[in-house]
Write a structure and sequence with these properties.
Chain lengths: ~650, ~140
């Protein structure tokens, strides 16, 4: 019963979002602006319907209603209650519903913040958002319906939620990521209504900025959480694999970052208007692609299209409708007037331009590498290839370097043309001192240095000085410093975040130690200066799995800790999973994975030491914090 | 030059420069880091140089997994139901590696025709077959 109610609410939302989405057309027929009044309430009604539909799916998961195919495939009675709840978005169908719910939250928030503003503009924006909601609900209902029943033979027990997904971080990873993805629909909708109502101006730019900042922030958190999850859950100790699924989130992130920087220039100087609009379209295109790529599996091979042509065609239709449609609007309605202000090569405008060019080209090149196997397969009669991680590593380094240089210097450039270059000397001296101190510290800790670390430390020092140290150095009074720090908090936090991230990446890539070993009970292995001692192994059982766990003692000069990696056997799916044990310390993580038994009391282990890895996620948190603070301030000023 | 013109020139030049750098890197990256995929039957037909890093895939044959005692070495045979390929690997295998599982291995082939893997992937889902493997198996069945 509840399932049918959820289904009916979903169909109701489909109908209402269709009416709301296409209501501007009514204006042409009736010459009446009546729809301005009703589109807001209709939008909220869609949000309510989707919420109720989502709740009924969650409820059905909690009561183990295995007559629903989606639930039977992704849950089971043994699953702890919390994971039954989170299993709602454990696979394609439910995560689409979550995506739609996130978008509804955005559209409703937009409505409540702007309901007293320019009626026509808000109505147009809401109609675009509702068209998107309509398209996604249609896709869900017709190709991936989570409410579909298996009748008449109802299974007694469900399959299981993939054990890898039975993890706290992974339950909040999709909602964060989807808030980011779907949030990019708002600047997209704002751009379209600005094009249609010919209001591409500073006001528009100021309105679009907080939404792009927020999406960026949620994408940052989502990506970082995914990376953290992969690190401790997959048992390989890797934190980024250049997997198509990761790239599908990284590309929209890069474009959204480009977008909120470009919008600053549009707001403050009234230029780059067309470019900002184009970016918002590109960002939304990347977001649609990313959404579909992540769970539908299309990227792994074009054959998925052939296996499930209905979904493929539907996705292409949605993509073409929104992206080609908006590009057509753009080419006819874009702002033909040249920007009034001029600038030269030393200006802030030009700095932002370089930032945008670098970010967008990097995003497109990563996209190209991700899609290249598909292109190759299509051109070479089904020959299959994969693009290795080194492709992306070669690619990203020069771009990261150039972007870091801009990040450290950009703050000191003036609009139009920079006259004073004193800052270069100061920042250079400051960053050089930090560079020397840090290099010595790193050398002291690890005993060696390499090109990679030098480069990472240099980038870190430059960004750090340009964004924070110089501000401290220059302010004569504490009061002055305080006001600068408060005023620029969002930017400083985000830029320092990238600096920490770069430092973490540089050091973990250079100084990680890794070894697969065979250990007898009581035996120890020395990795770097650390001893790993295999003490004991035992077997036991928990709620929905049985497991073996090894006790490993970690010793350096003294005992550091004892940790217990596990090998689990999930009872309902009979799936084996390793659970790595990690001992985090300030400077490095000790990471042990249990392999298998290869003799009497002899087991294989993967031992790893991962220095500075936590700085990567710490950096990401700072970036997200920065974007949230900045967008909050913008919304307050609106 | 008119300031607006000049401005446009800067823009165009920096875009060109950025694109040129990216194109160079993309080209270099792709020429060095593409790993071709072969099924065991493909390997019988084509001669692959011992220096080329390639990927192979198929189903792990029943009773073919041979683990050496007190060592990290494992050997096993994969099949596409037409030809077989012997693979050796030293290290910890992924959780989902088992008999009759679809796997993909990355590595080089040696003079005797044995595949020396430096990476073995079995995707983290028991229903999942790597797409290349699924296709190979479907073609041959």
């Amino acid at each position: 019963m509840i399932v049918e109610i959820g289904h009916i609410f979903l169909i109701g939302a489909l109908v209402v979002s269709f009416i709301a989405g296409f209501s501007p057309l009514l204006r042409f027929l009736t010459k009446d602006n009546f729809y301005y009044m009703v589109i807001g309430p209709m939008n909220n009604l869609v949000c309510l319907f989707i919420f109720l539909s989502f709740i009924s799916l969650i409820y059905s998961f909690l009561v183990d209603d295995f007559s629903v195919a989606y639930i039977a495939n992704n849950s089971n009675t043994l699953l702890p209650t919390y994971y039954k709840f989170a299993a709602t978005w454990g696979a394609h169908e439910g995560s689409l519903l979550l995506w739609i719910f996130c978008l509804c939250l955005w559209s409703t928030t937009y409505f409540f913040i702007n309901r007293k503003k320019d009626e026509e503009f808000v109505a147009l924006t809401l109609s675009v958002l509702n068209q998107i909601i309509f398209a996604f609900i249609a896709f869900t209902i017709f190709t991936s319906n989570p409410f579909e029943r298996i009748l008449p033979v109802v299974p007694i027990e469900g399959a299981d939620l993939n054990p890898l997904l039975q993890d706290f971080a992974f339950t909040i990873h999709p909602p964060l990521l989807y808030l980011g993805y779907s949030g990019l629909a708002v600047p997209f909708a704002l751009s379209l209504s600005a094009l249609i109502s010919k209001k591409i101006d500073s006001v528009w730019a100021r309105e679009a900025r907080p939404w792009s900042l927020l999406s960026s922030g949620f994408l940052t958190l989502g990506i970082a959480l995914g990376s953290w999850w992969a690190y401790y859950e997959l048992g390989w100790g890797g934190w980024w694999f250049w997997d198509p699924v990761e790239n599908a989130a990284f590309v929209p992130w890069l474009i959204s970052v480009a977008m909120f920087h470009s919008l600053i220039v549009t707001e403050k100087r009234g230029i780059y208007k067309n470019w900002s609009i184009l970016l918002s379209i590109l960002a939304f295109a990347a977001s649609i692609l990313g959404t579909f790529l992540v769970r539908s599996g299309i990227l792994t091979s074009v054959h998925v299209f052939a296996l499930d042509p209905e979904r493929g065609v539907f996705i292409l239709a949605i993509f073409s409708y929104f992206i080609l449609g908006s590009l057509i609007f753009y080419s006819f309605l874009n702002n033909k007037l040249p920007g009034r202000s001029t600038y030269n090569l030393t200006s802030k405008e030009f700095g932002f331009l370089l930032n945008n060019i670098l970010l967008v080209i990097l995003a497109l090149s990563i996209m190209f590498g991700t899609l290249f196997p598909l292109i190759y397969e299509a051109l070479n009669d089904g020959d299959q290839i994969s693009v290795g991680a080194p492709y992306y590593e070669i690619l990203i380094l020069p771009f990261a370097l150039a972007l870091s240089i801009l990040q450290g210097a950009g703050l000191y450039l003036s609009w139009s043309s920079t006259k004073q270059f004193n800052f270069l000397n100061r920042v250079a001296i400051e960053s050089f001192s930090i560079f020397v101190i840090l290099s010595l510290l790193v050398f002291f800790i690890f005993g060696t240095l390499s090109w990679g670390t030098f480069l990472a430390i240099a980038m870190f020092s430059w960004i750090f000085s340009g964004n924070l140290v110089d501000a401290v150095y220059q302010s004569t009074q504490l009061q002055e410093l305080k006001s600068i720090l408060i005023k620029r908090f969002g930017m400083i936090s985000a830029h320092l975040g990238t600096a920490f991230l770069i430092l973490g990446v540089g050091i973990v890539t250079t100084f990680s130690l890794e070894r697969d070993v065979v250990l007898q009970k009581g035996e120890s292995y020395k990795l770097g200066s650390t001893h790993f001692i295999f003490k004991e192994i035992q077997e036991a059982k928990r709620l929905n799995y049985s497991f073996q766990s090894a006790d490993i003692e970690i010793r350096e000069e003294g005992l550091i800790d004892q940790i217990s990696p596990e090998k689990r056997n999930y009872l309902s799916s009979n799936q084996v999973m390793t659970e790595a044990a990690i001992k985090p310390t300030l400077l490095q993580d000790y990471y042990v994975t249990l392999g298998e038994q290869v003799g009497d009391g002899t087991w294989t282990f993967k031992l790893q030491i991962k220095p500075f890895i936590r700085w990567i996620w710490f950096g990401a948190i700072l970036i997200a914090l920065g974007t949230f603070v900045s967008s909050y301030r913008y919304v307050k000023r609106l | 030059m008119h300031p607006i013109r000049k401005q446009r020139l800067y823009v165009v030049l920096s875009i060109l420069l950025g694109t040129a750098v990216a194109a160079f890197l993309v080209f270099k990256g792709l020429s060095e880091n593409i790993n071709l995929f072969y099924s065991p039957s493909d390997l019988k037909k084509e001669k692959i140089s011992v220096d080329n890093q390639i990927r192979v895939g198929g189903m792990v044959k029943k009773d073919s997994i041979n683990k050496e005692n007190n060592s990290l070495r494992t050997s096993f045979v994969i099949t596409d139901f037409e030809e077989d390929l012997l693979i050796t690997y030293e290290g910890i295998l992924p959780d989902l590696f088992s008999e009759e599982a679809g796997i993909v291995a990355k590595g080089k082939i040696n003079e005797e025709g044995t595949f020396i893997a430096n990476e073995v992937l079995a995707k983290h889902d028991e229903n999942y077959m790597p797409p290349e493997v699924a296709k190979t198996l479907k073609d041959k069945k």
